[in-house]
Amino acid sequence: MIPYPEFLEEIKSYAEPEYAAFHKRLLKNDNINVLGVRVPTLKKIAKKYKNFVPTLLSFPDEYYEVTFIKLQAVALLPYNFFINYVDKCVPLIDNWATCDCFTPKCIEKHKDEFLGYIYTYLLSEDKEFYQRFALTTLLHFYVEEKYYQTILDIIQEDINTDYYYVHMAAAWLLAELITKFYDDTIEFLKYSAKLPEDDECYIDKKTHNKAIQKACESYRLTAEQKTYLKGLKI
């Protein structure tokens, strides 16, 4: 593994100033320093250094790309190694792009085992990207019949949708339930919409409506289904 200055120079060799400016605007976080290296290149670098995770994690998080590579390298690890580092990775997430690209494939075969981690991150009510990571992980790996009710319970009870990026992830996740389990989720939306706001099964108006909007953008629903869905907006 090369020293940090050389590692940084390697990353900078792929930097595109115009792309950096464009991507920084998308991240909507002025505190993040962006070099402007595209995601496919960052993933290649992460794969190159995946056997040096402890060293990678020791590097300073002064650039978006450095943190991105760290998380991508950890995401490539087998589950029994991955879980040794995940609690060090989640606190590094400070934007939606890094969060949404942190999709460790090893979770796929260890869903029940990883649920405990998800609940831990969900309970971090004052940490926006802890909760977003929990929700996007559910979206990537758990949208199946076995976890359907678990996901509904989480959306209703365990998240703080006052945070914009939590709200958007919850709506995205609920939209996925609509497209995959249409009839059941329609009934749930109808039921939730009739409840008072202080009911534990109530989903806030903005998340309810955003989920419907996102579901209607899907090619997996028919025109008739989308028309009906739009009629359920609050």
Element string (H = helix, E = strand): HHHHHHHHHHHHHHH
Tally of alpha and pi helices: 15
Shape: elongated
Helix/strand/pairing category = mainly alpha
- What is the percentage of strand-forming residues? under 5%
Q: Rg, please?
A: 19 Å
Characterization of this structure:
This protein has helices spanning 4-12, 17-27, 39-48, 53-58, 64-75, 79-82, 86-89, 96-101, 111-122, 128-141, 148-157, 164-180, 182-193, 205-216, 223-230. The chain is an all-alpha fold. α12 packs across α14 (205-216) and α14 runs antiparallel to α15 (223-230). 63% of the residues lie in helices and 0% in strands. The radius of gyration is 19 Å and the shape is elongated. It contains 15 helices and no strands. The model has no long low-confidence stretch (mean pLDDT 93).
